[in-house]
Amino acid sequence: MFYNFTRSGWIGSSSCCRCHCSRGQRGAVSNKYGWSLPKGSLERGETFLKGAEREAFEEAGIEVIAKEAAFVTEYTSEKYGQYLQVYYEGSARAGQIECSADPDDDINQARYVRLADLRSFITFRPWIIPLEHWVQHKEMKYYSFDLDVEGFHIPE
Question: What is the DSSP annotation of the chain?
Answer without folding.
Answer: ------SS-EEEEETBTEEEE-BSEEEEEEETTEEE----BPPTT--HHHHHHHHHHHHH--EEEEEEEEEEEEEEETTTEEEEEEEEEEEEEE----STT-TT---SEEEEEEGGGHHHH--BHHHHHHHHHHHHH---EEEEEEHHHH-SB---
